[in-house]
Design brief:
three-stranded mixed sheet, about 30% helix, elongated, IrrE_HExxH, IrrE N-terminal-like domain-containing protein
């Protein structure tokens, strides 16, 4: 079977238009929710679902038994109904978010292109090995055009700029740019003028410069002020505005965060701590000669380790009795409030941190 290059590219564009995509990069989770009888689950979510039905599984079991051993993703067709499930590995210690996005787009390609097979639980019939390879190439081609349509590339684009703007891997950006520059007719969809806009995400860049390599905890996203906070334990409050309207994500499972909120994130200046939470440089006087045995700067007396002060925030309504003493939680250097009890932080009380919280433009009305 020959690969149907232009047919596949046209299908990718038609699918984007059919399901109302307007902005790139778009939310793949929200996109899949628009399909009938298709669910999107991480390996961890699939394991939890099976365990709730009495089985004993984990993510590795799902990978080995439901995904044919794939570290990326798989498409499952249920044997007793028309339902299909895209399962994907969201552990970013194994996959970066951009690889996860491509893997999911690849499985969407299989759904749209409808090859005569579906992996794992049920198969629709025998497929020759040579044709199987063609179907995989077509799914990859679909995913490339689906995430980065060739007509949206400009003459000034580079691999780096495309990777950042469209939230795709550099390999996908490289292939797309090569097709554009070499004017390969088979690599272009029939439709050359597209009505899509670009709204790049902030989170990929933020994560690369925001999360210390040694950090092993959680990310808290506030849906009120759009701040992203690093927290060492699961929390209840936003570290920046003390709102309780937050979502918590394990640091190594942040794909959902990137898809849902990637462009709606406020970046607040942070300061580098060591693994014990102490600053490497005083925020107030920039003194770098800090004593590891002390909690205050020897030059200006400012605190160098941000912890819960136990001083109540005026904005927090406590469901039970408020704390009577600091909970002693170690906080991120830019935290104004304790994510556990909502009290003010030591740095905030010492007026090291600014009080101003800027709210970005609300983009909740964006379809994708």
């Amino acid at each position: 079977m020959d690969v149907r290059w232009k047919f596949v590219k046209d299908k990718a564009i038609q699918t984007l238009e059919k399901y109302g995509v307007q902005f790139f990069p778009f939310d793949l989770i929200k996109f899949v929710s628009g399909f009938q009888n298709v669910k999107l689950l991480s390996y961890a979510d699939m394991s939890a679902l099976l365990n709730s039905k009495g089985m004993k599984t984990n993510s590795e079991w799902v990978k080995d038994n439901l995904a044919d051993g794939s570290n990326d993703a798989a498409l499952i067709k249920m044997s007793n109904n028309d339902g299909r499930i895209i399962i994907y590995n969201d552990d970013n210690t194994q996959n970066i978010n951009r690889r996860i996005r491509f893997s999911i787009a690849h499985e969407i390609g299989h759904i749209i292109l409808e090859p005569p097979f579906v992996t794992c639980i049920a198969r629709n019939g025998y497929v020759e090995k040579r044709n199987y390879g063609s179907y995989e190439v077509e799914a990859n081609t679909f995913a490339q055009c689906f995430l980065l349509p060739t007509p949206m590339i400009t003459i000034n684009d580079t691999i780096e700029s495309l990777s950042q703007k469209f939230d795709v891997s550099k390999e996908v950006a490289k292939i797309s740019l090569s097709i554009f520059k070499n004017q390969r007719y088979w690599g272009w969809p029939t439709k050359k003028k597209l009505n899509f806009s670009l709204l790049p995400r902030k989170y990929q860049t933020l994560k690369n410069n925001y999360v210390p390599l040694w950090f092993n905890g959680f990310l808290a996203y506030c849906k009120k002020c759009y701040a992203l906070s690093l927290i060492r334990t699961d929390g209840n409050y936003c570290s920046h505005c003390d709102s309780q309207n937050i979502d918590i994500f394990p640091i190594n499972e942040d794909f959902v965060l990137n898809e849902r909120f990637g462009r709606n994130i406020m970046i607040y200046e942070n300061y580098e701590p060591d693994q014990n939470g102490k600053l490497l440089k005083c925020i107030r006087c920039n003194n770098e000669q800090l004593d590891n045995d002390q909690n205050f700067c020897s030059i200006c007396g400012a605190p160098i380790r941000n912890t819960c002060s136990g001083i109540l925030s005026e904005n927090v309504v406590y469901p039970l009795a408020p704390p009577e003493s600091p909970c002693e939680t170690v906080l991120s250097p830019n935290a104004r409030f304790c994510h556990i009890c909502g009290s003010k932080s030591i740095f905030y009380c010492a007026k090291i941190l600014e009080n101003k919280i800027d709210l970005p433009v609300d983009e909740d009305d964006l379809p994708f």
